[in-house]
Specification:
By secondary structure, the chain is mainly α. It has helices at 2-28, 43-74, 78-89, 92-110, 112-118, 121-125, 128-135, 141-147, 154-160, 164-168, 175-183, 199-204; strands spanning 188-191, 194-197. It is flat and about 60 Å long.
Length: 212
């Protein structure tokens, strides 16, 4: 009975936080402020942006404390990973974080200047290492890594300031695509997760493919 009461209370708390998160995003969603210079944003809008940063910081701090512990327990066995994943999926990490990331990406695409002024995005970047360590414990991770030989790195532009044009030049190539291409006479190879076309180099080399 106590456990059931605790679950309902936690669900109500998460629902309240989710509603608050929706409210922040809705207040920042662009209306007439699209295209404005940073120094022309209204004080109210900048205040909401500052509040989003504080909210994101608190959320990231909590998740940053939880994930290392979850990773340590989940690394014991696949069964432990499944149980920990179920718990994490019902916690802030599985409920609030995914929607916050999607909302931030949407806001960034609509009004990059305002989001950069708010300063909430770099805080999310601090969770990438924790999330990556946890996800690498998932069964089938090796298979997924072999399938995806290159990654466009779209999220990287949000944190490093790189232009999206550079990211669009990177193509995702799957292992099956590489194998089929080489069967048809191509010469693609994988180095550090990146695919390179070395057919011209192989043709010009006097020693053939052995030097490669």
């Amino acid at each position: 009975m106590d456990h059931e009461h605790y679950s309902k209370e936690r669900s109500a708390s998460l629902d309240l936080l989710l509603r608050f998160q929706h409210l922040l995003v809705s207040k920042l969603y662009p209306g007439d402020c699209v295209g404005q210079a940073p120094n022309t944003y209204s004080p109210d809008l900048l205040g909401v942006g500052s509040l989003l940063k504080k909210y994101t910081a608190l959320l990231c701090t909590h998740i940053g404390d939880i994930l290392p512990v979850a990773t340590s327990i989940a690394s014991t066995s696949h069964r432990h990973f499944a149980e920990v994943s179920r718990v994490v999926d019902g916690d802030l990490t599985g409920i609030l974080l995914p929607e916050l990331v999607v909302s931030v990406v949407l806001l960034l695409s609509k009004n990059a200047g305002l989001m950069q002024e708010a300063g909430a995005i770099p805080l999310l970047a601090g969770l990438l290492e924790h999330l990556d360590r946890f996800n690498h414990l998932a069964p089938g991770k090796e298979r997924d890594d072999n399938e995806d030989l290159a990654w466009p790195g779209i999220m990287g532009s949000f944190f490093t300031g790189q232009s999206c044009r550079n990211n669009e030049e990177v193509t995702l190539i799957r292992k099956a695509d590489l194998e089929n291409h080489n069967k048809d006479g191509g010469f693609w190879t994988v180095i550090d997760g990146k695919v390179y076309d070395i057919k011209d180099f192989q043709t010009q080399s006097l020693t053939g493919s052995s030097i490669l």
